[in-house]
What does this fold into?
Amino acid sequence: MAQVLTDLKRLCVHTITTKPWPIEEAAREFSASGIGGITVWRDALTGRNIKQTGNLLRDLNLEVVSLCRGGFFPALTPGARQSAIEDNLKAIDEAEALGAPMVVLVCGAAPGQSLFESRKQIQDGIAACLPHAAAAGVKLTIEPLHPMYAGDRSAVNTLAQANDMAEALNSPHVGIAVDVYHLWWDPDLETQIQRCGKNNNLSAFHICDWKTPTLDMLNDRGLMGEGCINLKQIRSWVEETGFTGFNEVEIFSNIYWQQDQHQFLEKIKAAYLQFS
Amino acid sequence: MAQVLTDLKRLCVHTITTKPWPIEEAAREFSASGIGGITVWRDALTGRNIKQTGNLLRDLNLEVVSLCRGGFFPALTPGARQSAIEDNLKAIDEAEALGAPMVVLVCGAAPGQSLFESRKQIQDGIAACLPHAAAAGVKLTIEPLHPMYAGDRSAVNTLAQANDMAEALNSPHVGIAVDVYHLWWDPDLETQIQRCGKNNNLSAFHICDWKTPTLDMLNDRGLMGEGCINLKQIRSWVEETGFTGFNEVEIFSNIYWQQDQHQFLEKIKAAYLQFS
It folds into this structure.
C-alpha cells in the first residue's frame, strides 16, 4: 500500500507544469501553499542570475529537487554529438549554481540512425559528462521515455533499458527518474522498479495521468485521477524500495496552460492528496 | 539479410490502406498491379454478400490473407464482455464466409480497470471463442499494439506479452501478428520474434513506417521508407523464423486518404520494392 499523503511536504511541482508563471511567481505560490519542492526547467532561468534564483527558492522554503533537462546525446555527426556533450556540461554547471542535486536527462534519438546506435551514443555521452558531474556533485538522471517518443526524443523507452544503462555506467553520479506517464503500461514495471531501487538508482519519481483520448502526443497530460494510470500502485512499488524523495508533478498541457494558474494549482493540490 | 523483393507476389494490401476505394475497386486495382494478397476490414464488407465477395477476390487472383478485426474483449460488466465475445463469434463466421484463414484481434482495454484485469479478460475472451474458431477453421491472431494505445485499445503492448498469451492458450487456432509500427522500438524484438516463430505462433507481418513528427496518434502512419523503422532488419528476423507469408501494408493516414488512390497505390508498390 502507498503511504497516505496528508500534506504537501513531499509534493514537488515542475516549473513547466505552471509554465505561464515566471519562476519567481511560481515559487511564491508553491511556497504559500506549503508545497515542499520545485523542479526547475532551464527555460525558466532565462535572464536570471542562477545562483540568486536558487537562494530565492530556498528562502521560500522550497527544496530544489532537480534541473530539467539535459540529454539529447545522439546525433549523426561527431561535431553535433560534441555540442550535445557541451550543452550537458553547461547544464551541470547550472544545476550546481542553482543548488540542484541532479540534472534530468531526456536522452535523445536521431531519426537517421538505428536505436541501437542512438543508445550507444547516449551511454557514451553520459560517460563523457560524468567527471564533470562528479566534480560538481550533481547526479545525471536517466529518464526512460514512452515508446511513442522513440522516433526523435529518446531511444531509452523502458525502465529495464535505463537500469541496464545505469548499471553499466556504475557511478554514484548516475540515477534514474521513474515517470508514470512514460512507464505505466509496462508489464515489467514492478520488477524493474525493485531492481532500480536495489541498485540505488531510483533518484526521482514523476507523476501525472494518461488521458483517453490523448489529443496531443506531447502536451495533453492529465492531472492525477483524470486518466487510467494505476498511480497509487506504482507509488507503492516506488516506496517499497525505500524511496523517500519527492512526488514530482510534471504536466505538459495546452489545456491547463490556458487556464488560470491559481485555480490550476488548487486542482493540483487536491488531486495530489486524493489520487496520487 | 532480408530476402530481396523483386515482385509483388508477397505484397498484401489492407482495404483500410486505400479506404476511399470500395473493396471491389481496390481488389481490381491490386490485382491489375500483380499484388498477391488482400486483407479485408469488416467495414469494407458492409452491404455485401460476404461469400460472393470472397469469390470475387479469388477470381481476381488475390489471396484473402485475413479479416480485420475482432477483439476489444475487456469491459467493465459481464454483459458487455459477453457482447464482445458474440461480436468475435460473428467475425469468425464472416472470416469463414469470406474464406479468410484468420481474424486479427485488436485486443482492447477498458480505461476503468487495471491493465492486469484487461489482460485476463482478453485471454478469457479468446479462450471462449476458440471452439467456434476451431470449427470454422479460422485462426485468432493476437496483434500487440503500441504502448500509446494501452489506455483504450489494447492491454497487450509487447510481443513478449502476446507470446505469453498465445503460449498459455496453446492452440493451433491462436496466432500472432507482428506489426512493425507497434513493435519497432522494443529492444527485445529480435528475441521475441525468434520465440514467436519457434512456437509456430507467427501468423502475420504488417508493415508501414513511423514518421517524426507523428501528427495524429491513429491516422498518421508513414509509407515504408518515410520514417525511422528498421524495416528490412525486422523483416529479416521474421524471415529467419521460416515465415513465408505476406508482407501486409497497413497504413492509416489522413494525408494519404485525401490523395488520389491510384497515385497512392503506385507509391505503395515502389516503396514496397525499395524500402520494405
Summary: Residues 168 and 271 of chain B are 37 Å apart (CA to CA). The longest strand of chain B covers residues 63-71. The beta strands of chain B are 11-14, 37-41, 63-71, 102-106, 139-142, 174-179, 202-207, 247-249. Chain B touches chain A through 28 residues (CB under 8 Å).
